[in-house]
Amino acid sequence: MLLLYDLDDPLRLGTTLNHPGNNMLHSEKIFTMLNYKLTYFNMRGRGEIIRYLFAYSGIKYEDNRIEWADWPNIKPTIPFGKVPILEIDGVIIHQSLAIARYLAKENGVAGKTPLEQALVDAIVDTIDDFMSMFPWAEKDHDVKKRAFNDLLTNVAPGLLQDLENFLGNKNWLVGESVTWADFYWDVCSTTLLSLKSDLEDSNPKLWVLKRRVQALPAVAAWIQQRPKTSL
Ligand SMILES: N[C@@H](CCC(=O)N[C@@H](CS)C(=O)NCC(=O)O)C(=O)O
C-alpha cells in the first residue's frame, strides 16, 4: 500500500492507492504530490463534472483534451475504449461518475453521512439516466433531431418537476451544503438549456439553485476560464 501526501499541504493525505502488482507487505510513505491527468474530448460532456470537482477542490490536474481526428488511434490504448479517464500516478479510473464520486469523497462534497451519500448518488443517477437517453452519437440528422425534440419537450418537464419537488425549499439538493449532485445539476442543465432555452421558464427553484452553484467562487472562476464549446 502506498500512502501519498500532498507536498503543498502535507497534513492532507491525498489518497491511498493499492498499486496492482505491488508486493510490499508494509506501508511506505512517499512524500509526493499526486499527478492527475484527465483525458476527454474538447467539450464539456461527461468530462465537465470532473473538471468542476477539480475546480472546487483547487487540485491541479492536466486537462488533456483530445481531438476527434486522433481518437481512432487513441481508443485502442484506453482500457474499456471510452473517455473520460482519470490517471492518478499511473492508475487509470474510467467511468465519469466513478471518477467524480472518488473526487467528491476526497474533497468533502459526496454527502456528509452514508444516507446523504446515497441520496446524492440517487440524484446524480436520475439526472444521468435522462442525459443518457439522448442519442448523442446518432448519425442521421433527422432521427437525432426528432429524438432530441421529443426528450426535451415531452420528458424533460417531468424530470425537472420531480427534481424541483425533491429540492423543495432547501438551498442544496442534499444536506446543508453543496454536494456534487448540485454540481451535476448545473453541468447537465447547462447542456439542456443550450438545447432548449425555454426550459428555464418553469421550475424557478431549480434555476435559483443553478445560479447558487455558479456563484461559488471556484465554479465561477472555472466557468469564466474554461474553453467555450457548444456541448
Ligand atoms: N458511462 C460512461 C460513458 C463513456 C462514453 O460513452 N464516452 C464517450 C464520449 S461521451 C466515448 O468515449 N465515445 C467514443 C467511443 O465510444 O468510441 C461514462 O460515463 O464515462
UniProtKB/TrEMBL annotation:
Its main location: cytoplasm. It is found in: Cytoplasm. The keyword Transmembrane helix does not apply. It catalyses: RX + glutathione = an S-substituted glutathione + a halide anion + H(+); prostaglandin H2 = prostaglandin D2; 2-glyceryl-prostaglandin H2 = 2-glyceryl-prostaglandin D2. GO terms for molecular function: calcium ion binding; glutathione transferase activity; magnesium ion binding; prostaglandin-D synthase activity; protein homodimerization activity. InterPro entries: Glutathione-S-Trfase_C-like, Glutathione-S-Trfase_C_sf, Glutathione_S-Trfase, Glutathione_S-Trfase_N, GST_C, GST_superfamily, Thioredoxin-like_sf. GO terms for biological process: cyclooxygenase pathway; glutathione metabolic process; negative regulation of male germ cell proliferation; response to nematode; response to selenium ion. Belongs to the GST superfamily. Sigma family. This is Hematopoietic prostaglandin D synthase. It comes from Crocodylus porosus (Saltwater crocodile). The lineage of its organism: Eukaryota, Metazoa, Chordata, Craniata, Vertebrata. The gene is HPGDS.
